[in-house]
Amino acid sequence: MAFERVRTEEQRKIRIQQIKDASVKLFDEEPFHEITLAKIAQETSFTRGNLYKYISSKEEIFLLVTMDEILSLKDDLKAALDQDMTTDIAAFARTWASVVGQHPRFLQLTSLLFTVIERNATLEKLVPFKNEFAEAMYELTGILKETFPSWDETTIQKFIQSQLHYAIGLYPNTSPSDIQKQAVEESVMAYVFPDFTEEFAEFIEYTVRYLQEKQDKVQ
Question: Do residues 81 and 140 lie in contact, with contact meaning Cβ atoms separated by under 8 Å?
């Protein structure tokens, strides 16, 4: 695409979206550490100089991409959950795990978010990201409050944090690379890589039952 000077805010948003789309394409095709601004510029047909008019680092781009993934997951969870699933915790667990499992890019990015992306982002870009993240979590809290009306905010926050931490740890073990698969096959390990949705649903059900029991004792 030929580069044209941006004259309106709408045009700037279009350029940012083009940069994000190019970054996502690369992210889906190669390891994060191999993605460079030069590759992103080439994917968009921008020069690196033109790219720097909109972003200053790879991490800045992927903060934006990560937020898109967070918002997409939040919207899908809201659409999938019934308003009150207190009496059918197993169904809630299966639904939650299934929806999260349908967002592998979210899982990949959040596994990098706290250890790589945020650590290499500027404060100027990280603060707005944190604010938007907090707003998304506030909306998710509301969704969970409708699903489990008896839960207080502390219980909801414990659930959100627990499931996120577990998902981040579980996902890499359920999506091995070809070389990891081959290494297991050629080693003496009798190991079967777990299914993400199945394992995650089991964890979610255990966690919800534990939190529900604690909540019931308080009331």
Answer: no
Query: Smallest Cα–Cα separation from 71: which of 79, 59, 60?
Result: 79
Q: What is the pLDDT of residues 69-127, one digit of tens each?
A: 999 999 999 999 977 788 899 999 999 999 999 999 999 999 999 999 999 999 999 99
Which tokens hold the place of 108?
A: 């990949």
Buried/exposed 21-50: b ≥16 CB within 10 Å, e otherwise? ebbbebbeeeebeebebebbbebbebeeeb
HEC profile of 53-122: CCCCCHHHHHHHHHHHHHHHHHHHHHHHCCCCCCCCHHHHHHHHHHHHHCCHHHHHHHHHHHHHHHHHCC
All structural domains of the chain, each given as residue ranges with its CATH number in brackets, are 1-55 (1.10.10), 58-218 (1.10.357.10)
Please say if the pLDDT value at position 205 is more than 80.
yes
Instruction: Give the burial string for 173-191 (b: 16+ CB within 10 Å, else e).
Output: ebeeeeeeeeeeeeeeeee
HSE (side-chain half, CA atoms, 13 Å) at 133: 16
Q: Name the DSSP letter for residue 187.
A: S
Confidence of residue 7 (pLDDT cuts 50, 70, 90): low
% of the chain with per-residue pLDDT over 90: 72
